[in-house]
Amino acid sequence: MTITTEEITLDVSGSAMQAYVARPESGKAPALIVMQEAFGVNEHIKDVTRRLAQQGYVAIAPELFHRTAPVGFTAGYGDWEALRPHIQATNPETIAEDARACYDWLANDRQVDTTFIGSIGFCLGGRSAVIANAGLPLQAAVSFYGGVPPNVADVAREQHGPVLFFWGGLDKHLGPEQRNAVTDAMTQAGKLYINVEISDADHGFFCDARAAYNPNAARQAWALTLSFLATYLK
Question: What is the pLDDT of residues 1-25, one digit of tens each?
């Protein structure tokens, strides 16, 4: 499928937030808000955004660090000194605000079928995708190794669309206690979700630019993701 890409700027309470957009060349389409890893809207996140557009989605990847970082900011994998101030300035309220700006932009885009908008994210973005699904009337969310949102019980109760969770069984950052906190909260809230733990995968297994990349796990997770999104967004 032929796609087009562009960089746009959205105003978020007086802060200019750049976002990367990829879309099918023509035709009405469902949409996805693509939430970055901690390392910024880098080439990996842009690649995921383009891959989603090739599957028929209008996809927008906002720069969540726009309040504290320059436009286009990215950092190397593991460069925590550069990332720390921007991560610390990012919280559920700022994430929800950024997601709302993207949702409003999508809702006013002529190509978008506004009855089918979802979110997907990785690491920091996985948690962000779930926060977006709590604050916005989304139809679905996908969270790759996203961690536990603050006030997880409240966030679970507020979920709108079904959620697909991916975890790596080898992930020492997000062990069974953290994973169970998320799924237990979803179960107690009576929310629809699918929980996938890939036993031989580590944190970041989907990203082909990271040492933790696991091609088999990534391929399987992508297939499940596309099936899940097609079920709820098409």
Answer: 899 999 999 999 999 999 999 999 9
| Coil, helix or strand at residue 144 | strand
**193-227 pLDDT per residue, tens:** 999 999 999 999 999 999 999 999 999 999 999 99
The tokens of 103 are what? 């949702």
List Cβ neighbours of 180 (8 Å cut-off, separation of 6 or more).
none
Burial class (CB in 10 A: 0-12, 13-18, 19+), 196: middle
What is the average pLDDT score of the chain? 97
Of 171, 200, 207, 208, the active-site residue reads 171
Q: What is the residue whose two structure tokens read 């993701």?
A: 225
| Residue 171 annotated as catalytic | yes
Q: Return the number of other C-beta atoms located less than 10 Å from residue 97's C-beta.
A: 16
- How many residues in the chain? 234
Residue among 123, 160, 202, 208 flagged as catalytic = 123
Instruction: Give the bridge partners for 20, in sequence order.
Output: 7, 61
pTM over 0.85: yes
Question: Active-site residue among 44, 86, 203, 207?
Answer: 203
Are the C-beta atoms of 231 and 224 separated by less than 8 Å?
Answer: no
200 is annotated as an active-site residue? no
Q: What is the mean pLDDT of residues 48-57?
A: 98
